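>> received
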Amino acid sequence: MRKELAGKIEEYDFGVVHLTKDLPAAGSQSRYLIGAGNLIDDEDFEGYIADAITAKYPDLEAVSLAQLSQTGDTSWPIEQLVDTIQATRFGIYRVNEQCSPTIFVALGISIGLNRPVLMIKDANKQVPLDLRGIGLYEFPNFATLERDVIAQHQSFFAKHA
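>> returned
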């Protein structure tokens, strides 16, 4: 965690320690969170995932981690992240080594709050050592991702969407 967060570790430690407010009801919104990372093709990844989910579950709305930082909310970013993770139905995280530390913070918060997560990686990319050996959906290209993500995870979506 220290390697992934580098100089931000104390900022995140401080923020997590002070989260004592009441959280929204788990899964209370008809939204899901997409954490694409900090890569050039983030919008493509988010778009293909959102298109696949919208085709099958039109009532669900996608919200990306990138959107959270642009909402203008005055609360501290970690509080906003925790509230969003708690209120959304599930999270989908792209977990390549090149992804931003925020992805891994959000994934850790999701796991800590016992929220449903789906971890996805590019077939030609490595994942951090901490995630190796954990069930990850691997996609070779975006066309395959859009076509197969729902089919490969039918039980996940049936339960959480």
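>> The chain has one domain: 2-17+28-160.
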